[in-house]
Specification:
The chain has helices spanning about 1-35, 105-110, 185-195, 215-230; strands at about 70-85, 95-105, 115-125, 130-135, 135, 145-155, 170-175, 210-215. The chain is α+β, with helices and mostly antiparallel strands and about 250 residues long.
């Protein structure tokens, strides 16, 4: 009888252990599937953008006149030591441009794992021709609503006119990796912006009577960090703003 009493207990322990093992195996299989197919949980890769999961807001369609950001600040910049931009696949040299602060839709500014809507800018050259560029940005701005950016004036082709901020348009284009963007892709984005009706906003006041002169890209980064500390202190690298934060509803 003693051995018969122990047998059911051993059987119960065996069954319990098997159930636990199956649960662990099932959980591991799900986790492995998520790693193997991140698009299921990554709204940037998921074609169903209306179901991004609980962590991020749904990504609206872009480009659209409904997601055009407001230009808060614009300042021309000259950079003595040019650098190669990482926001173009051609890695063109940059020696001038415009520092810019925008206020945008939090659904667009939400940080996503991979492809995000391109931030684009276009304007007119000194000869009236239209230019378009992939805008560099240095913070997401999801909490504050403000994103600090730089519109690089990349090297013009032979005979190209100098770029101006006249007729400046800034908008969010199709989701892509910035480093994959080339001249052909930019022209496609420009045509799509024209199709959906992206137009120049209210005339933007350009700060400063002359371009701000910076030594190199490192100094550009330092300058953008100061702007982040002012406009988006929650993303400031030094953890604190040295300038009073601008109210989010301003």
């Amino acid at each position: 009888m003693k051995n018969e009493t122990r047998a059911p207990k051993k059987l119960n322990n065996f069954l319990t252990a098997n159930v636990i093992a199956c649960c662990i195996a099932g959980t591991s299989a799900i986790a492995f599937a998520q790693v193997a197919n991140p698009a299921q949980n990554n709204p940037a890769q998921n074609p169903d953008q209306n179901n991004p999961g609980p962590a991020l807001p749904a990504l609206p369609a872009t480009p659209s006149i409904d997601t055009v950001p407001m230009i808060v600040s614009l300042q021309p910049v000259t950079i003595k030591e040019s650098y190669a931009t990482d926001f173009r696949s051609e890695h063109q040299q940059v020696s001038s441009g415009w520092l810019m602060v925008i206020r945008g839709d939090s659904r667009i500014l939400a940080p996503r794992a991979l492809a995000e809507p391109l931030l684009l800018a276009s304007g007119t050259g000194a000869d009236g021709s239209v230019w378009i560029e992939s805008v560099e940005w240095f913070n997401h701005g999801f909490i504050s609503g403000y994103r600090v950016c730089f519109i690089p004036s990349t090297a013009q082709e032979k005979g190209g006119a100098d770029r101006t901020a006249q007729g400046l348009r800034v908008w969010f284009g199709s989701p892509k990796l910035p480093e994959s963007v080339d001249a052909k892709a930019l022209q496609s984005e420009l045509k799509e912006a024209d199709r959906v009706g992206i137009v120049a906003g209210v005339t933007v006041k350009v700060e400063g009577s002359a371009p701000k002169v910076l030594a190199n890209r490192d100094e550009l980064i330092t300058t953008t960090n100061a702007l982040i500390a002012r406009w988006a202190p929650d993303e400031s690298q030094d953890g604190a703003s040295t300038v009073p934060a601008v109210p989010a509803n301003k």
